[in-house]
Amino acid sequence: MTQTAAVLLADVACHAKYVPSRYIRPPSSRPNIADVDASGSAIIPLVDLRDLSGPGRAAVVQAIGSACRGHGFFQVANHGIPDDVITSMLRVAREFFRQPESERLKMYSDDPSRTTRLSTSFNTRTEEVASWRDFLRLHCFPLEDYVHEWPANPPAFREAVAEYAMNARRLALSLLGAISESLGLETDWLAAALGKQAQHMAVNYYPPCPEPELTYGLPGHKDPNAITLLLQDGVSGLQILGQNGRWIAVDPVPGNLVLSNDRYKSVIHRAVVNNSTERISVPTFYCPSPEAVIKPAPALVDEEHPAAYREFTYGEYYDKFWDRGLQRESCLDMFSESPICDPI
Ligand code: OGA
Ligand code: NI
């Protein structure tokens, strides 16, 4: 009798006593969870956005600028997304992944160019080692172009996700405004540079893992977009690489930037898994539209600061990101004007 192998990790993980070999990292690239910088979280900036409109704006902009120059990562308080919107988003995410395999598989595709799809790991077509994650990816802007593609079940899914996505967009644009100002640019400079703009969402599902020290939820990487807002349930797992080269565990909302001619760097981060509790995270990736040309703001280029990267379209960059299977932490170096490593 033939038995079909499970396609999604959730349906492997629920029976697994050991990590199957395709998820096991070579010893030199395992998470080393015991070596996380326990005091590191104290240095992650927390920016209170309450004063962003009003006379306190300059101070908030300055705090955001310094966070971007430092880690490229910060948490925000008073971000304006209502608690019930967040709770509903996480509830429908959990309900989606608790559905029977047959219902989840209706959304399955391993084609990264699909605008709505459920998949597993990162890119099963190109990667050598798999990651301990299933994920649903959705395009969210303009909403009316995509909502009809989204999962019809659970029944509350579309409404709850649309509400969260609209709120996340508002926050992303408000942060991009503050970040533009922090670079000495017009408030709407970064938003305009994104062209028609795009917004993608991942709903990441990390099942409990019997041997979390052998694998990752996601290995170290930089996100390939202008800014990421990360919503997490209460289970920790996100870590960022600190300036001292040690990993720092965080409970966060990160910001993550390109377009600044290297003045602001994108944070390297990863997700580790644990052996007791499933974890859900919902990153919103605010991005340029595929045809937008990525190049530095003219005001940030002069003789002393020549353009660090050749111009490219976001579509070109995005395709490279998915092809590479997170083998290197950043794919921006492939566009560098002064390559330090061999292009692959
Ligand atoms: C991602 C990511 C981190 C997390 O999806 O790009 O970095 O904590 N997720 O799930
Ligand atoms: Ni990421």
SSE topology sketch:
Layout: H1 10-13, E1 46-48, H2 57-69, E2 75-77, H3 83-97, H4 101-105, E3 116-120, E4 134-141, H5 143-146, H6 157-182, H7 189-193, E5 198-206, E6 218-221, E7 227-232, E8 238-241, E9 247-249, E10 269-271, E11 279-287, E12 293-294, E13 312-313, H8 314-323
Parallel strand pairs: 1-2
Antiparallel strand pairs: 3-4, 4-5, 5-11, 6-10, 7-11, 8-9, 8-10, 12-13
How would you sum up this structure in a few lines?
This protein has 8 helices and 13 strands. With 344 residues, the protein is of the alpha+beta class.
Describe the protein's architecture and organization.
- By secondary structure, this protein is an alpha+beta fold.
- The chain is built from eight helices and 13 strands.
- The model is unreliable at 339-344 (pLDDT under 50).
- The chain binds N-oxalylglycine and nickel (II) ion.
Label the overall shape.
globular
Would you count the extended β strands for me? 13
Compute the average pLDDT.
90
Helix run count: 8
Strand pairing plus helix content: what structural class?
alpha+beta
Approximately how much beta-strand content do the residues carry?
15-25%
Oligomer: single chain
Task: Summarize the amount of helix as a percent range.
Answer: 10-25%
Specify Rg, calculated over alpha carbons.
20 Å
| Unreliable parts | 339-344
Q: How far apart are the termini?
A: 44 Å
Order of helices and strands: HEHEHHEEHHHEEEEEEEEEH
